[in-house]
């Protein structure tokens, strides 16, 4: 059965805003055999979802380390790629392996740091070594997950320039320029 | 509002033998009546309303004698209680509804209700309250939710984006296509001629020649509209339109 | 021996920054028999320095009430209520939903503007729509936070509420009271 010393120490440590030394616990709960209570409590909580631990002479309760996954849940939130993101992805897919400077040269616009990060976070783009050129820039390529996500058997399944022209995707010059302006505004903030 | 100390308890006021004339201490006449009633009897169902009325009236008289300023509602209550008292003492007039006894009962009920809530409040405050009697965990780790973006894009967007990039950065060849337009001069000439040929109202569109190329027709319509405005300004034609988007009617002046 | 469901629920409730519904616990620990685990945990903690309690359908750990004297020493009192505030809170809790005029009828005095505001600021009272009566007055009710703060599982646990109801002292502010007001006004003239 739990005794009063143990109850008092348990409550004090539970309600404490920081870990406590034996002296501090004693000051809180009065003249009790705090050490003995601490050792019984530690034993009691061993193997439970919560543990009593001592770190550098200070005691505190914490959740069991093997349950950390409960405390940190990840929730997926659908998010659309930005226009810069999708263009960068397209350029990497058509030209891989390609460096950041090359992507910018093709796009005609600089890309922000977050753009490639987002593509890597999505698992679609990976660093593929360095270009043996001055500055040895990092080069990027697409991943198998990229092919899976876009339903492509291989990169050869991407429509070529002539296909794009036939589909009218190379025509709307003015429209594309307008969109570029909008996008510049977006990246500004 | 009156700030009470935290161990405010109900019986406190009632336990006093005599009441001090501390008007500020009472939250209105009903509060005062309740305190007087509790001096009389602990069980409010057993109090004598007549005695209570006497006590209240005596209290108000005492306050007047000491030239204390009583708030109007205390005096209103005193007047009502004096009325109740006379009703209770005088021979009963069956015409008067509700009877004085019923009014007395209602007052008693009202005091009970207030008393019940006052006691309930005290009992609530005496409960084990979080932050005073019981405590939550002082340093909870927190259940964090890490939001992980699930990026979305489809193949069409991808190739369309590539097309846009190539279109934007490829050598641009600009060809200005010539569109058929009707000049304003032509339109003025056209409208003047058509209006001159008619006497009655006619819609603007009826002035346009049949079988025009659709693009040219649009230009002709726009120019003719400007032309009629110009002619109207010159006082040569009158314009009329019954409602927004209704046909624009034109007539020679 | 403690099982995995119990460990997970224990860890989640310990780590949580606020009390949790069964649904929230389930979302945190995954598909487990949360209800059974909660009931075993409550039993396990009964009589210890820390207890597992349910308030308004939400669960949390808190220190045992009888240890208040140990823990209170260094802590500030929770918000102090004026007498008007306490009475108004009691009236709202026992009569809810109730309008301002009904509160004033029971107290026999007008309530100052700040009184209900203070109760709302404390998170104990909320507007609960309007009474379908002339003037459509706003009506007030208590919140789950009120029940949690005062250690009530539900409104049924309000001290003495059954006795008061049986004695007719919680009936809607009845016509007799209004009539009393009318009489008062008449003698006023």
UniProtKB/TrEMBL annotation, chains A, C:
Keywords: Cell cycle, Cell division, Chromosome partition, Cytoplasm. The keyword Cell division applies. One of its GO terms (biological process) is chromosome separation. This is SMC-Scp complex subunit ScpB. Signal peptide: none annotated. InterPro entries: ScpB_csome_segregation, WH-like_DNA-bd_sf, WH_DNA-bd_sf. It comes from the Bacteria.
TrEMBL record, chain B:
The lineage of its organism: Bacteria, Pseudomonadati, Pseudomonadota, Alphaproteobacteria, Sphingomonadales. It comes from the Bacteria. This is Segregation and condensation protein A. PANTHER family: SEGREGATION AND CONDENSATION PROTEIN A. InterPro entries: ScpA.
